């Protein structure tokens, strides 16, 4: 016995189904059969001609509705069309076709069909466990692996960590859905962890397409750490995260932690429900190259008001170099950063963090809440927090700069003061605020530049000696006249013509002399935000009492004023920084140990605002903001805003001997209340 087979040829359409109402054309080999037909017949002897095209029924050629066999003489070409006239198959040499070759042709036709999801790309399979030859689609897909969550915290964390560990440098890892983790994910190689969709959202009520949620216990660490912190001698270079939401579960300290990683790219991140910070920057300071530099952040939203109990004191960005190092947390770039905070700060620098750039950042908290939009909190004299730049910031809680001298080069451009809440009185605050340079959208200027006249309406009185009128006791200067008052006639003499003046007493006990400008009642008050600056050289170091700054009279002591004082009988001859209101003084002995002895010349500066006076000193020579050294800030017994004070130098003898002091220059800058 033999197997029974169909005596008729069978044709299929593009989907592999029986060809219904199709068209069969037969022609000269190698040529188009529709335009170059040959004779075909219904019998092997060629006596029963068949008209073309031959039609099909249920995949079979038919003659008058009955299945039949078509005969041709030798090699030929063949075209098969479906009922709609679409090409199913063209064979230039049909006689050489085999079942295998026909199937291959049918597969190729299906791969080129883009009309159905089951065709074309729907026929291609990929196995990430296989190694594909270089240059193939499989090899390229191996560089972009996908990971789906299980929903179990331990399983998700372990599986995700294993995939990251197995990935090659530069590989992209796509993750989809909602993940739970109970241990930190560590990324120590330059891979890209990418969510299936944008991770940004605007409230916890919106479910992100890709979210990682902390499901472990209370943790002081981070959900994800990127970098080689604590390992090796070099930092991680490259890699990043995109389109992912991080939910700290109300118990995990940090969301994303950059720990000795550079040149990373981070986009469309939403971080919330953490207890310490959304973005944490650290370095251990052991790396031979910059450990955390040139990282870039785009369109990131750190929502720390979403769960007020958990995130009440959390910071948006927290920078703190550890292990005694401040090197390398530098040149981070932010574009489109938004931080909602309640008790913590929008950005807080504890240690390290120079060269940060913020393009159009937005920081928000309510009036009833605390924290600053940006806070430079370090008081470490060795720390580096300078050259940060803010472009068009909207900051409802103001900015605070702690110890001065560490923020040189910090600039703020077009600060949107309209959004300041009622709990913030000044755009830029703190003892280091004067080291900042910037202006608001109103054109108000603040910081170091208050000593100049660019964007703010100010009055500037500068003493540079032109001529001394001994007869009338007037020092004529390049900016008005500074007046001398004292018991003697030989009060002052030009020691260095055109540049300095010597202020002298008589050789009498308790003799005094005063050189001042803007004396009461036409003086300046703390409400005008005055800045006093002077170059002082003590020519007499014994039997003398000298003060310079702002004071309401030439009485000793003055009732109201803000000044620096040298009295060799007090504080071991150190300089004393004083604020006095109604005769009640707050005194700070300068902490840097300057004394009158051995000091040829020093420059002094007092920056005043209502309720606050900040003192600085610099070496002799031309003014340079980088030379100013912070001494102290006094916030008690500061004269009220309406008390008129003059700017000047006061000298008094404590023995019957001439005392003198050299004044290199003196300057008073005050804000004009024009708003």
CATH architecture of the largest domain: 3 Solenoid
> Which geometry do the CA atoms define?
rod-shaped
The CATH class label of the largest domain is Mainly Beta
**Rounded radius of gyration (Å):** 42 Å
Strand order of the largest sheet: 9-10-13-17-21-25-29-32-35-38-40-41
What's the main sheet like? 12 strands, mixed
Low-confidence stretches: 449-458, 621-626
Overall strand count: 58
Strand fraction equals 35-45%
Q: Assign the structural class, choosing from mainly alpha, mainly beta, alpha/beta, alpha+beta, or little secondary structure.
A: mainly beta
Please give the structural blueprint.
Elements (H helix, E strand, L loop, with lengths): L22 E5 L12 E2 L12 E4 L2 E4 L2 E2 L3 E2 L4 E5 L5 E5 L7 H13 L25 H5 L2 E4 L5 H14 L5 E4 L1 E5 L3 E3 L4 E4 L14 E5 L4 E8 L9 E2 L2 E3 L2 E3 L4 E8 L1 E2 L2 E3 L2 E3 L4 E6 L9 E2 L2 E3 L2 E3 L4 H4 L3 E6 L8 E2 L2 E3 L2 E3 L6 E5 L5 E3 L2 E3 L9 E3 L12 E3 L2 E2 L3 E3 L9 E5 L12 E2 L7 E4 L4 E3 L10 E6 L1 E5 L4 E4 L2 E7 L5 E5 L3 E5 L7 E6 L13 E8 L5 E8 L9 E6 L8 E7 L2 E6 L12 E8 L2 E8 L9 E6 L11 E8 L6 E12 L4
Parallel strand pairs: 9-10, 10-13, 11-14, 12-15, 13-17, 14-18, 15-19, 16-20, 17-21, 18-22, 19-23, 21-25, 22-26, 23-27, 24-28, 25-29, 26-30, 27-31, 29-32, 30-33, 31-34, 32-35, 33-36, 34-37, 35-38, 37-39, 38-40
Antiparallel strand pairs: 1-3, 1-7, 2-6, 3-4, 4-5, 7-8, 40-41, 42-58, 43-44, 44-45, 45-48, 46-47, 47-58, 48-57, 49-54, 49-58, 50-51, 50-57, 51-52, 52-53, 54-55, 55-56
């Amino acid at each position: 016995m033999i197997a029974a087979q169909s005596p008729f040829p069978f044709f299929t359409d593009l989907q592999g189904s029986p060809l219904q109402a199709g068209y069969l054309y037969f022609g000269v080999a190698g040529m188009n059969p529709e335009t170059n037909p040959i004779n075909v017949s219904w019998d092997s002897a060629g006596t029963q001609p068949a008209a073309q095209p031959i039609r099909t029924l249920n995949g079979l050629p038919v003659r008058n509705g009955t299945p039949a066999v078509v005969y041709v003489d030798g090699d030929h070409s063949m075209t098969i069309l479906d009922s709609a006239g679409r090409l199913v198959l063209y064979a230039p040499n049909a006689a050489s076709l085999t079942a295998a070759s026909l199937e291959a042709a049918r597969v190729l036709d299906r791969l080129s069909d883009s009309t159905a999801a089951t065709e074309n790309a729907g026929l291609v399979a990929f196995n990430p466990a296989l190694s594909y030859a270089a240059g193939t689609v499989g090899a390229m897909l191996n560089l972009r692996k996908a990971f789906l969550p299980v929903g179990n915290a331990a399983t998700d964390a372990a599986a995700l960590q294993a995939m990251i560990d197995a990935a090659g440098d530069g590989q992209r890892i796509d993750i989809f859905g909602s993940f739970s983790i109970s241990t930190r994910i560590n990324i120590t190689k330059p891979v890209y962890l990418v969510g299936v969709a944008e991770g940004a959202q605007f409230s916890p009520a919106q479910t992100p397409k890709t979210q990682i949620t902390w499901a472990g216990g209370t943790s002081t660490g981070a959900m994800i750490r990127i970098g080689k912190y604590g390992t090796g001698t070099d930092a991680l270079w490259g890699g990043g995260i995109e389109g992912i939401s991080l939910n700290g579960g109300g118990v995990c300290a940090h969301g994303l932690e950059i720990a000795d990683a550079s040149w990373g790219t981070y986009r469309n991140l939403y971080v919330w429900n953490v207890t310490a910070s959304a973005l944490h920057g650290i370095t251990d300071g052991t790396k031979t190259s910059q450990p955390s530099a040139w990282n870039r952040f785009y369109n990131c939203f750190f929502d720390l008001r979403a769960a007020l109990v958990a995130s009440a004191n959390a910071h948006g960005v927290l920078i703190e170099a550890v292990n005694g190092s401040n090197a390398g947390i530098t040149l981070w770039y932010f574009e489109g950063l938004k931080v909602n905070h309640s008790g913590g700060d929008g950005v807080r620098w504890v240690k390290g963090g120079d060269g940060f750039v913020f393009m159009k950042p937005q920081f928000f908290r309510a009036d009833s809440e605390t924290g600053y939009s940006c806070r430079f909190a370090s008081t470490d004299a060795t720390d580096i927090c300078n050259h940060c730049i803010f472009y068009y910031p909207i900051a409802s809680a103001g900015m605070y700069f702690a110890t001065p001298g560490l923020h040189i080069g910090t600039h703020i451009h077009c600060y949107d003061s309209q959004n300041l809440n009622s709990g913030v009185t000044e755009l830029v605050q703190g003892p280091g605020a004067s080291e900042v340079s910037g202006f608001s959208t109103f054109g108000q200027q603040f910081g170091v530049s208050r000593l100049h006249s660019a964007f703010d309406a100010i009055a500037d009185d500068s003493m540079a000696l032109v001529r001394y009128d001994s007869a009338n006791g007037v020092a004529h200067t390049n900016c008005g006249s500074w007046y001398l008052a004292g018991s003697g006639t030989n009060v002052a003499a030009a020691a260095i013509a055109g540049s300095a003046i010597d202020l002298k007493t008589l050789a009498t006990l308790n003799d005094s002399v005063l050189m001042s400008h803007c004396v009461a009642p036409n003086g300046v008050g703390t409400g005008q935000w005055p800045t006093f600056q002077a170059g002082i050289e003590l020519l007499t170091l014994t039997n003398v009492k000298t003060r310079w700054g702002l004071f309401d009279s030439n009485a000793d002591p003055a009732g109201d004023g803000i000044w620096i004082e040298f009295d060799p009988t007090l504080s071991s001859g150190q300089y004393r920084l004083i604020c006095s209101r109604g005769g009640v003084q707050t005194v700070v002995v300068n902490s840097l140990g300057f004394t009158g002895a051995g000091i040829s010349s020093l420059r002094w500066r007092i920056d005043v605002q209502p309720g606050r006076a900040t003192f600085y000193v610099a070496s002799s020579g031309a003014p340079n903001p980088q030379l100013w050294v912070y001494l102290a800030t006094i916030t008690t017994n500061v004269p009220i805003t309406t008390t008129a004070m003059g700017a000047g130098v006061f000298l008094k003898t404590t023995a019957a001997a001439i005392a003198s002091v050299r004044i290199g220059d003196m300057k008073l800058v005050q804000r004009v209340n024009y708003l």
